[in-house]
Amino acid sequence: MSNLEKYTNAFVTCFEVDEETAKRLKYQDISAWDSVGHMGLIAALEEAFDIMMETDDIIDLSSFEKGKEILSKYGIEF
Amino acid sequence: MWNFKSFENNIAIVEENSNSVTYAELSKLCDDFLQHIPSRSLVFNLSSNCLGALLGYVACVQGKNVTLMLDDHIDKELLSHFILTYKPDYLWVPNNKNSEFGGRIVFSECEYSLIKTSYDHEYPLYDELALLLTTSGSTGSPKFVRQSYKNLEANTRAIAEYLHLDASERPITTLPMNYTYGLSIINSHLMVGATILLTDKTLMQRDFWNFMSDQHATSLGGVPYTYEMLNRLMFFRRRLPDLRTMTQAGGKLLPELHQKFAEYAEKEGKKFVVMYGQAEATARMAYLPPEMSLKKCGSMGIAIPGGKFELHDENNQVITDTETVGELVYYGDNVTLGYALSGEDLAKPDERHGVLYTGDMAKFDKDGYFYVVGRKKRFLKIFGNRVGLDETERLIKSKYSNVECACSGKDDALYVFVNNSDLCSDIKKYLVEKTKLNPVAFHVQFLEQIPKNEVGKTMYKELEKFYDKVC
Known about the structure:
Chain A is mostly helical.
């Protein structure tokens, strides 16, 4: 699976949305992406890429697009 | 209930955009609001943590109207059901939702509008009735707790007293104001002339933390899940010199986390206050004094000022021995009037007479500190919200006929076992839609045979072994 697939998959699984919706998502766009859902998303991303995210990155991850930018800091390329 | 005149020049509210409102201004806004509504009207407030919602709430309490506090994201169908059941005279709604309702707008302020419905005092209201709040309402029943003016005032005073609140406090909102704990934070701080930092942002957003530090927040409150999030966010590493107090309620915190936050508080010279309460007791019944937080880790504390606890055994006899489990019974002026299930119930007087059987099983130690050890009734706390397991079963069975199901679980994880694998994802979607709780809380699993005893009762204990099986 490519990094983008793994990344997208985390959103699809956590928020139970299709890929197209996932790619446009921003925090609180859907009720599943609230603070509780955010915790789940972070855990899923950490597991998928075997990383441990910093607090600042966790609270900055406010959209699908922004998350890709943040993960690049952990050496994950899309 | 509040006397805003005593601190007219203090700032009452600061909003996310830094807009601030003094107590004199809040008072004036309330007067304007009350010009447009006759006293003893029934008002539904569709709230979020913003000035408009707060204004509607405060004005209604001051003007002796009865408010039902709801989340502005409430399911439309559910809201219609509540409106038909209670026939409110007015709705107080955010301007962007105006068009969803029929009726005439009679007043607009702070991005909220007061809509006159077609109902006109349809149900008589008991004179002492002040407020209606949801309890296990998250499963969609129109069951509300009836709170009186005396309830509100007694509980608010007790909270301000045991937390030693004064006008220098600046709490930041982390809980919705239609949730009893969130509302109690607002009530108690308005009583002492403090400054409430109102935000709808969550701990998971940078804007929240910026607002918190820019506005020098002195306290925050959270349910167990909030503390799990703070823990994950390495909260302990963050420099928050202005923060004085952290309160916790809405369910029992894991003892490890209790310990961790109590140690942090001690080291940093802050207060960590574990509390216990229910909407049925207005909000708070117990608190663990912060200086005892480490010594009595895992305890829910002692009764609030003016309150008293007893433990009752199965024969309703008072337990006098330490370390003996019984049902926790609370006495105090904050014990609410009772429930409302229909419009007619709004006329009902006090049905509890100051005594509340909490449904929690507890014990006390030799120093008189109480510990919750279990529950008498079948419910869970999901992210601080009470969810009835039997109610959830009924909800599923009424939606999907011919399905066998059993609900059980632990706090923050509700397990639904069904004997039809095709329905798993539908049921999960349905529960999320009805409860408005995050889907991660629901685990719907297929189980060919729901374990039952010889008389056909579900054996819930038997289900525990399936809890960690991935669906």
